[in-house]
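Repro:
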Amino acid sequence: MLTDPVADMLTRIRNANKALHETASMPSSRLKVEIAKILKEEGYIKGYKIVSSEDWNQTHESKADNRSFATLVVELKYGRSRERVITDLKRVSKPGRRVYARKDRLPRVLGGMGTAILSTSSGLVTSRTAQERGVGGEVICFVW
């Protein structure tokens, strides 16, 4: 049983990025899709798509790999000479220790060069957007 699906997602992206893979695939959820959406908006990934279980099972013939859930496929982004766009991803708030940020104490990643993703009452947003809206929330992860 997986206790932290978001940490699993970040680890899959981190590992695929280090191995210079084109894509990283993982089980889909609304939270993971929102994180992928923010990563695309911030320019860290090329794109993402949700592949239904029927499509996945048709393209992967193995009987042991039949899936009954949708799969999120994240297309990773690299520079001209294959340099990585994502340097690192770090999970901040974990199931064992939740981390919250008030609206006047929002986190800055690498002095503003990175991105902090927060879960607020108005959905998942970056710390920059949260500051504009004047809201705080749970700090999900840092990306730089």
